[in-house]
Amino acid sequence: MNQPIQLPSKDELIETLRPHRTALVIVGLIQGILGIAAIGAPQFATQVGTALFGFLLLLAGVVQITQSLRIQGWKGATILLLSGVLDLAMAGVLLVFPHRGAVALTLLLAIILLCQGIVRMGFSFSPQLPQGKGWFFMGGLSSAVLGGLLWWEWPADSVWAIGLILGVNLLLGGLSVVGLAGSLGGGGSDQAATG
Fold first, then answer.
1. How confident is the model at residue 194 (pLDDT cuts 50, 70, 90)?
2. In this structure, how many other beta carbons lie within 10 angstroms of the beta carbon of residue 185?
3. 17-38 residue pLDDT tens
4. 66-115 pLDDT, tens digit each
5. Under 8 Å CB-to-CB from 124, ≥6 apart: which residues?
6. Which of 39, 46, 27 minimizes the C-alpha distance to 181?
7. Share of the chain above pLDDT 70, in %
8. Is 96 exposed, middle or buried (0-12, 13-18, 19+ CB in 10 A)?
9. Rounded-to-integer distance, Cα 77 and Cα 86, Å
10. What pLDDT does residue 128 have?
11. How far apart, in whole angstroms, are the C-alpha atoms of residue 11 and residue 177?
């Protein structure tokens, strides 16, 4: 019989995260700095984001095709092969026609930001989350608003929007991580786990 997944209590979550406060702050600051850099150069960030996504799809396609050829007796091998070919085709569009790829990615990014924003806002009402719920709600609201604006202006904003919105999202995500770390209170800094 399947056991339901037990979420940690608020106190368990705080005790798990508290020893890693410094690491959370560092990750949040790095994420924020990357966000500021992307906001400062949105056209460059759009090109980098499009190329990176293209390379990830290329890698995923190669892995899926390789796996489908290795497990030919499995019924799902054909679907895995077709999925790999589709990933390769999408990677080709992104890498060979980066502007068209940016237009498609802009619409995809709008949808992702809307969904991510709704999830973050919902998570901010979770009783397991320690203080700092306002940071998560504001981050989620900002993501949802940015996704909506991006959708509204699509496709005209495809040249710069991916980089700018990615930068704002990184910055706000970094602030939410730093806010979470600050809400954990005292009780020690990063500690090495002892056996």
1. very low
2. 10
3. 777 788 888 888 888 898 898 8
4. 888 887 777 777 787 888 888 888 888 888 887 777 787 778 778 888 88
5. 133, 134, 136, 137, 140
6. 27
7. 88
8. exposed
9. 14
10. 66
11. 18
DSSP for residue 187:
S
Structure tokens at 81: 């092969």
CB burial readout 16-44, b (16+ within 10 A) else e: ebbbbbeebbebbeebbebbeebbeebee
pTM of the model: 0.55
Domain parsing of the chain, residue ranges:
26-183
**How many angstroms separate the CA atoms of 126 and 138, rounded?**
15
- Judged on CB neighbours under 10 Å (0-12, 13-18, 19+), 186 is exposed
Composition of the chain by helix, strand, coil, percent to 5: 80, 0, 20
* Residue for token pair 């990677």: 91
Contact by Cβ (8 Å): 36, 183 = no
What are the Cα distances from residue 64, in Å, to 72, 92, 98, 159?
12, 16, 23, 31
Identity (one letter) of the amino acid at 113? Answer: L
